[in-house]
Amino acid sequence: MFDLTPLEIEALGLSLRVALWSVFVSLPFGLATAWLLARYEFVGKTLLNGIVHLPLVLPPVVVGYLLLVLLGRQGPLGAWLLATFGVSLPFTWEGAALAAAVMAFPLMVRAMRLSIESVDQSLETAARTLGASRANVFVTITLPLIMPGILAGAVLAFARSLGEFGATITFVSNIPGETRTLPLALYSLIQTPGGEAGALRLAVLSVLLSLAALAASEAIARRLRARMSD
Amino acid sequence: MMLEVDIARRLGALDLEANFQCEASGITAIFGRSGAGKTSLVNTLAGLLRPERGRIVLRGQTLFDSQKGIDLPPEKRRLGYVFQEGRLFPHLSVRHNLLYGYNRAPAAERPLGLDRVVGLLGIEQLLERRPNALSGGEKQRVALGRALLANPRLLLMDEPLAALDQPRKEEILPFIEQLKAELDLPIVYVSHSMQEIVRLADTLVLMSNGRIEAVGPLEELTNRLDLRPLTGRYEAGAVLSTTVAGQDRMFGLTELRFAGGRLRVPHLHLPLGQKLRVRVRARDVSISLSPPENISILNIIPCTIQEIGEEQSPQIDLQLDAGGAPIWARITARSRTALDLKPGMQVYALIKSVAIDRQSLGRRDAAERFLAEEDRETEAGLQPENGHGGEDD
User: Fold this and answer.
1) What is the DSSP string of A49-62?
2) Is the dihedral of CA A67, A69, A72, A77 positive or negative?
3) Domain segments of chain A: what residues?
4) What average pLDDT does this structure show over B263-279?
5) Alpha carbon distance A39, B207 (integer Å)
6) What structural domains does chain B harbor?
7) Which end of chain A, N or C, is more open, meaning fewer C-beta atoms within 10 Å of its C-beta?
8) Three-state SS annotation for B218-276
9) How far is CA A50 from each of CA A53, A212, B236, rounded to the nearest angstrom?
């Protein structure tokens, strides 16, 4: 019943690629930001917190437009990237991954920050008195304890990236095979006369994909919890 | 084997200014009320709290010296730390909790291994469990084992029993006594419970408002009247060094001999000659001018009044001298006037036998348990042990 058309396969593959890359690339930055916000007091903390959360409250089109202004070939950052590395992000799938990462960043940081804040820091001092250095404490005590939070943040970001539309279409446009992810393909079909059946199939596909992602994260979280309390 | 501390640190309203030296052997108790700065002091020893100035030297090794710019991080100090709340790692099994410090200690400097510690603490059956599945007493035993297995040069214990109820305390105390007897490991023990300290400590460090008020042998400090506001009023009492001198099987009494005579106390399953430290609380001692007759009290000890506490209070503490041993009595101001008590008078101290319960006893060391099986039912927790003699007098 569900034989995928080449067009659907292309959109699905692209969506997965964009979402996975967006999560992988933003993961270390997300963890570092969450750590900074959870553990340190510094001047400009409120500002940083605000900037991180901006994509959550701004219209996605605005985020896409800002990315275009910043990273377009004439943009300050874009011109530098092009001159130094020969990299141009607009209208490429890498750009789509970046747009998705920016949009999903606040969700990722929030989940991680909560889990970092819930770690009992007295366990870390206890580990220090047992002969573990700071770095060693992070790897052997803190990281295992915040792993569920990191995972939750990654899954949330992945799901959000799969569904990214506004910032993507503004920043990298809607190019078949390059930046036309599932939501963009769905949008295109709706705009096409007679595309309703195809649109419905893509909608069902999106639902299944999201459900699978959620189920996978639940399963991993359950195993982590079980390891913690048997 | 000295511990030298001279540090200063401001902590909110508290000025921590600790300057003392003591022999780092046996159990050194740091005693003071809550807020006296005991935990902060121990944290500076462990390297968890940095003093603003001063130095800390343990057995010739400088752990901290503000002038020379030395500040060893906690992981380099090799001090074990048993916290009040255990602080076991929830994501590791008991076995891996125990081995956490062991695996990080230099291989040449860890005479204590897993089997020995597990046997000592009786936690064999817990090894594969997670900390969440342990009771409070079990957690504290594992925490103790974890600190021991790091093979520290000094063990810090910060109110390790404070979060436990009395039966759980009785479960842990024998283990600490056993450590002291079997391992050559100096312990710094923080507590606000005189009971625990009388049972465990050799040396007492008295703290008040961030300062060290006195350092010395336990018997000496607890018997000093001028320190009484610090050692506690309600629980105040003298500590006597005694020897088991006889058993009265028929009535279930044990006779203890001390410098001032003999004390009869509820039965203790101890051999003759066993040294025992007994605390007689001031509020359990009455005074009589002549030896009373027809009285239920078994312990009637002739003494001389040495000092009468000068206090504008309905209750007055007398310091009595019983053949060189100090005894305190707390009586009402009214009785003092009625009996016209003055220093130098001959009086009789009356001490109820049953007032001397197991919590007043300080056993000296461990080896064997002498409580007969039938006694354990009634005196659970009182398991006096044999001594290798004489270190307390």
Assistant:
1) HHHHHHHHHS-HHH
2) negative
3) 6-229
4) 83
5) 33
6) 2-231 (3.40.50.300), 237-378 (2.40.50.100)
7) N
8) HHHHHCCHHHHHHHCCCCCEEEEEEEEEEEECCCCEEEEEECCEEEEEECCCCCCCCEE
9) 5, 32, 59
Secondary structure class of B79 (helix, strand, coil) = strand
Q: Which amino acid is at B140?
A: Q
Q: How far is A218 from A222, CA to CA, in rounded Å?
A: 6
Superfamily of domain A6-229: MetI-like (1.10.3720.10)
Q: How many cross-chain Cβ pairs, A to B, lie less than 8 Å apart?
A: 66
The DSSP bridge pattern shows strands B315-322 and B299-308 to be antiparallel
What are the structure tokens assigned to B310, written together?
Answer: 């000068």
Q: In what order do the strands lie in the sheet with B14-23?
A: B70-71, B61-65, B53-58, B2-11, B14-23, B211-217, B203-208, B27-31, B187-191, B154-158, B79-82
Mean pLDDT of B80-109: 93
CA B242 to chain centre: 17
Distance from the Cα of A35 to chain B's closest Cα (Å) equals: 20
Contact A145 B90 (CB under 8 A): yes
Q: What is the mean pLDDT of residues B102-109?
A: 91
Query: Could you tell me the CA-to-CA distances from A160 to A54, A100, A105, A165, A205 in Å, in that order?
Result: 15, 8, 9, 10, 15
> Is the distance from CB of B180 to CB of B86 less than 8 angstroms?
no
Asked if the Cβ–Cβ distance from A126 to B46 is below 8 Å, we say no
Q: What is the DSSP letter of B317?
A: E
A204 pLDDT more than 50? yes
CB B52 within 8 A of CB B10: yes
* DSSP 8-state symbol, B92: S
Residue B150 contacts A where some CB pair is shorter than 8 Å: yes
Q: Does the structure show a pLDDT above 50 at B386? A: no
CB contact under 8 A, B91 and A228: yes
Show residues of chain B in contact with A130, CB under 8 Å. 75, 100-101, 104, 146-147, 150
Q: Is B74 on the interface with A (CB under 8 A)?
A: yes
CA-nearest residue to A227 within chain B is B91
User: Would you place residue B101 in the very low, low, confident or very high pLDDT band (cuts 50, 70, 90)?
Assistant: very high
List the structure tokens of B111: 């005479």
- How many whole angstroms separate alpha carbon B347 and alpha carbon B38? 40
Q: What is the dihedral of CA A44, A45, A51, A55, to 10 degrees?
A: -170
DSSP B157-190: EESTTTTS-HHHHHHHHHHHHHHHHHS---EEEE
Mutating which of B75, B151, B155 best tests the A interface, going by the most A Cβ atoms within 10 A?
Answer: B75
Residues of A in contact with B78 (CB under 8 A): 131
Contact B261/B323 with Cβ under 8 angstroms? yes
Q: Which of residues 76-115 of B touch A (CB under 8 A)?
A: 77-81, 83, 85, 87, 89-91, 100-101, 104-105
Of residues A103 and B353, which shows the higher confidence score? A103
Percent of chain B with pLDDT over 90: 31
CB-based contact, B146 to chain A, within 8 Å: yes
Set of chain B residues whose Cβ sits within 8 Å of the Cβ of A135: none
Q: So what's the ipTM on this one? A: 0.81
